[in-house]
Amino acid sequence: MNVLLTPSPLEGELRVIPSKSYMHRALICAALADKPTVLHCPKSNRDIWATAGCLSALGAEIKEENGVFTVFPIEGKQEETAHLCCEESGSTLRFMLPVTAALGRKAVFHAKGRLSQRPLSPLYEELVRHGVILSPNGVFPLSTEGRLTGGKFALEGSVSSQFFTGLLLGLPLLPEESEITVLGRLESAPYVSLTCAVMKEFGVRPVVTETEMRISPAPFRSPGALFAEGDWSNAAFWLVAGVLGGKIRLTGLEKDSTQGDKAIVSILREMGGNVREENGVYMAERSALHGVTIDATDIPDLVPVLAVAAACARGETVIKGAARLRLKESDRIASVCRMLTALGAPCEETADGMIICGGGLTGGVVDACNDHRIAMSAAVASLACCEPVAIVGAQAVEKSYPDFFRHFESLGGVYTELN
């Protein structure tokens, strides 16, 4: 799907869609629990369904009706080989691989898009060291058999926090205590905090510090029902849209969420953005922005839309600590810079980020590069352009936010689909 967007300010109120990061974790915990769990998630997406499908392949029964997921746990020993289709979801693959190994299941993991190119080391080597038999690293389909053993694990913290989440979810199933040593700084640490928060809802409490994680054998116990919290990563698009020239109110966000991307509020305020909160409602209005330095170590998913804000600000913005973006759905450092350049904003790639010269955007044609966050960021950028913006491959939004363009239009956005 290709779309043409005509510059127009957005105004109105929107309820933020549920967090897919929360739902990945909640679905897995529910499938490992002692009895059924009801998960309220009014809006889902391809990534959420990828995790649900993998759990179903392992023996869980998952029913969804009107935004309510009922998860019946995995029961008994399954002998046949399970085929787990992770689609393009890095979270699904990296969470489910240790969980499947902890269950001792024989399985084959399938991947689509760039997922097969995204790194599994050093998680891969640690699983092998602890008794798991895996087919060659980097070759898909990826097969696994044998049961994971506990003990001492050690992983570099700079590759992906998803490796640590996968182990945290799987290791409580083992009969012995385990310890994970974090080598170096753990990047995207808030996502590990989110993992621990969800696990706590199911009665499992790993002990986590900056340098190590201790996990004792523990049963997952269903809390009965949970409500998925709003997604701060997707809320960021609307908050930036507000400060670029609109007036937007967002509901459904948790002020005390452990999601790291709630940092969008403080970063926009640092840039001069008029973003405020009243009684749980977040409001963003047109603001005069200025350039800043942004450390994206813990918030890599915010980089594309923050880059759009920076392009519309006065002065230079430096984004650093984002080297891992080269291994996302696209090389996001390169694709963000191409997006801004196509829309008239000078942008220079660096090894771990970019330098953006603010001053405004004109318009043009953006290739979404099969990346949902590039497609949504380009749509937000159109609001500040003086000429139309065409997005090639806008269907990429289906991965995380299928209703994005419908919500865009409900707030006053103007777009048409192109043949």
Walk me through what this model shows:
It is a single chain. Helices cover 30% and strands 25% of the residues. α2 (46-57) packs parallel to α3 (90-103), α5 (161-170) packs parallel to α6 (189-201) and α9 (303-311) packs parallel to α11. The protein has twelve helices and 24 strands.
List keywords for this structure.
single chain, alpha/beta
Protein topology:
Layout: E1 2-6, E2 11-15, H1 20-31, E3 37-40, H2 46-57, E4 61-65, E5 68-72, E6 82-85, H3 90-103, E7 107-110, H4 123-129, E8 133-134, E9 142-145, E10 152-156, H5 161-170, E11 178-183, H6 189-201, E12 207-208, E13 212-215, E14 225-227, H7 232-243, E15 247-251, H8 264-270, E16 274-278, E17 281-285, E18 293-295, H9 303-311, E19 316-320, H10 332-342, E20 347-350, E21 353-357, E22 364-367, H11 372-382, E23 389-392, H12 404-410, E24 414-418
Parallel strand pairs: 2-15, 3-14, 6-7, 10-11, 18-19, 22-23
Antiparallel strand pairs: 1-23, 1-24, 3-5, 4-5, 7-9, 8-9, 11-13, 12-13, 15-17, 16-17, 19-21, 20-21
